[in-house]
Amino acid sequence: MIQDFTTTLPPATVLADAKKFFSRRNPIYAAFIDQEGENFVTFRGQGGEELVIGVASVEGGTAVRGSAYLFDQQIARFFSTLPPLDMKLEKVAE
Question: In what order do the strands lie in the sheet containing 40-44?
């Protein structure tokens, strides 16, 4: 499942936070760094499960995408630790 979130944090901070968050989970849900680059980090968890966090700069913050097969709940929990980017909605005239 793919999950998206937008935060006020810079991309490098999001990736650093992801590394801390996923390595400190309960052992059954822990994931360890497999590969990393400027805009992503991949983890391996229980049974070799892959978890990917990717980032991209957007106006005012960072778009974050998380993908995994079994770690959906953990990705959602990680996203809940990030400060959200306030989205301004404009009313469209009818």
Answer: 2-7, 61-68, 50-58, 40-44, 32-37
